[in-house]
Design brief:
The structure is a homodimer.
Chain A lengths: L4 E6 L8 H13 L3 E7 L1 H8 L5 E5 L10 H7 L4 H10 L5 E4 L3 H12 L9 E6 L6 E4 L11 H15 L8 E4 L10 H13 L3 E5 L11 E3 L2 H26 L3 H20 L8 E4 L4 E4 L6 H16 L2 H17 L1
Parallel strand pairs in A: 1-2, 1-4, 2-3, 4-11, 6-9, 7-8, 7-9
Antiparallel strand pairs in A: 5-6, 5-10, 10-11
Helix pairs in contact in A: 1-10, 3-5, 4-5, 6-11, 8-9
Chain lengths: 336, 336
């Protein structure tokens, strides 16, 4: 029998915690019989819930880190918070991964400072799967590092490639650099230097990716600094919402349009679900020793379940070990 | 009788030049009786066309700068190109402004190097009106300066405010800084420093604008460096297109949806036009001595016409003089 995967879930994380988290945990346990969940949160929440499930172990944590708190200060001060206690279980090897829909900043800080970086990784990167036309595109970094050096992007490219291969099954993922022109010499000094390094070190590097190409499926992996990546991710989310709002307005602005709208409503609702990044289940933080998946604060139960399954998949695929291995082989090639 | 406005139009600029440009010129001349157009291009194109109009003066330029050419090299080598000759007319005071849907880079270079910056302006900025929810938002810089210093953004904010007031009639435009968090201390080192400077020097500064807020109408003017601005602009364009593609797919995926689609088609076509940035008529380059409006390469005749009218409005409003004046009053306040 396959050994089960042990994943910590932060019961207190997210705008609608703990209710939607508990629903998501139920759904994940029902869907996948190989997951064992360490449910971390205040005892009044986690103990009664866990007692109804075979594969759910309650872990007490008396404090909660709020969305607005300063990440590093919060994890230093709230040692008994669900995020700090949860990451501690991964550090100690009790569990192999951690999922939270709580404060992204606090999760990043805890994962980096408590679980720790893979040896040789300069900076972990937060990745997100974008809803490109009929195929996924992985964008990273989307916010772990507001300031980057060009060589970080080479490691982001390697980690992104491994994620697309091992988790999403893309055979030969292509890598693009987010930039403001297609030609190699275009862009900021940062982008020009990153372009040179990527060309020299990443064999699947396919050149610059302009903003418009982020969602047209031209590249499988797109690398950028965490500032530009985060702004773009939120711009895509905002523009998608705006467009659906405009479509809704257009469809309710005349009687014949309203009639038509009634006929297309089901399809548009499905579209809204399809383009929701939550369907891929949160953002993996790549480059840390264990697995860490960070869900959207507004996650619903389905998104929580998908995030837990994404954590399971990353652990099953030995993602973290593959990233470590790729760094080792790269340095041995260089050293030879 | 009001004196007419003299505007150079580049007959050779744009993916569909000269045909759509000539159609746009016709439409602009018909719509506005106070415009006089200096139509710049190869004689075989501009002479026969101009001979049919009272207020169209042909200007011969034997060369054309292509979309892929290196901007600064091209304007140095092709002295008899429509862009170089056209900007020369503004420099010499023959015309007050210039419109082109040709190479953005070459137009930026020619406007900056030939027409010249307003005294005291560190860097001119390219601005674009975004299709926010039911109101316009001005984003700048969207590509004139891939590398910026934080203090450039203070001038961008001033120029953006003046544009929104004088051209789009917004009474008290609010200014936001594109950033990756709402709190002042968030973001890259660049963004943190820009935030401090804007807070100190721009009374209408209303804080950080996240990517998602670019299109929700939260701010009237949003400032950023030309790299981030260009990536965001293209991301918005790409995401809008993607969404319309998904909507189209959804509406043709079943018989009842197809029936509904027939009823809503007119509304969706109108939406597509409404969100087209071309309806505001190209991007003004703010901070140069004359007026310079750069149209999208894919401009149709309507977009060309709107760009010409935008140039007319900027000249009529004395935009360039107002920007110069605002710098003078700012420095006299500082000096007092």
């Amino acid at each position: 029998m396959t050994e089960s995967v042990k994943l910590v879930v932060d019961a207190m994380g997210g705008d609608n915690a703990p209710d939607v988290v508990l629903k998501g945990v139920s759904a994940a346990l029902a869907e996948n019989s190989e997951i064992e969940i360490y449910l971390c949160g205040t005892p009044d929440i986690v103990e009664p819930f866990a007692s109804s499930y075979d594969r759910c172990i309650p872990v007490s944590a008396s404090e909660v880190i709020g969305m607005g708190e300063h990440p590093v200060d919060a994890i230093k001060q709230k040692k008994d918070s669900s995020i700090v206690v949860g990451c501690g279980l991964v550090k100690d090897g009790v569990a192999q991964g951690f999922f939270s829909a709580g404060s992204t900043g606090a999760c990043l800080a805890a994962a980096t400072l408590i679980v720790g970086r893979i040896k040789g990784i300069k900076r972990p990167a937060l990745a997100v799967v974008l809803p490109s036309y009929n195929k996924p595109t992985l964008l990273l970094d989307v916010g772990a590092n507001a300031d980057c050096k060009p060589d970080y992007l080479v490691q982001f490219a390697k980690m992104g490639e491994i994620y697309m291969k091992d988790i999403l099954g893309v055979v030969s993922p292509s890598v693009g650099l987010l930039n403001i022109g297609e030609e190699d010499a275009k862009g900021s000094l940062f982008a020009q230097e990153a372009n040179s390094l990527l060309k020299a070190e990443i064999s699947s590097f396919a050149g610059n990716c302009e903003g418009g190409d982020l969602v047209d499926g031209k590249f499988d992996v797109v690398v950028t600094d965490g500032f530009t990546g985060n702004v773009c991710l939120k711009t895509i989310e905002g523009t998608s919402k705006l467009m659906l709002r405009y479509v809704k307005d257009a469809l309710t602005s005349s009687t014949s349009a309203k009639l038509g709208a009634a006929l297309v409503k089901g399809k548009l609702t499905k579209l809204k679900e399809d383009i929701n990044p939550d369907k891929y289940g949160g953002s993996p933080l790549l480059g840390i020793k264990g697995t860490c998946i960070i869900g959207h604060g507004s996650s619903n139960a389905e998104a929580i379940k998908n995030g837990i399954i994404a954590g399971y998949n990353a652990i099953r695929a030995n993602l973290s070990a593959s990233i470590e291995e790729s760094l080792r082989s790269a340095s041995s090639v260089k050293g030879s």
